[in-house]
Specification:
Strand content: 25-35%
Number of domains: 1
Structural class: alpha+beta
Largest sheet: 5 strands, mixed
Number of helices: 2
CATH superfamily: RNA-binding S4 domain
Amino acid sequence: MATSIDDISIGGEMIRLGQFLKYSGLIDTGGDAKEAIIDGYVNVNGEEERRRGRQLHDGDLVSFEGRTVRVRP
């Protein structure tokens, strides 16, 4: 069964991971985003990402708790 991937338009060229998690609705608050990233629960392009300030660009895939979204400008 294929996982659906939602496209999330960020309205620009770049967004930081912590901001994107909130903006996309994957996580409710900045504090929750920080904890999820530090604890290793967030993947970017299939790899664990522990840097909240990681810059995301067009086409990057962000996964959290079984849901994956794609960054779009």
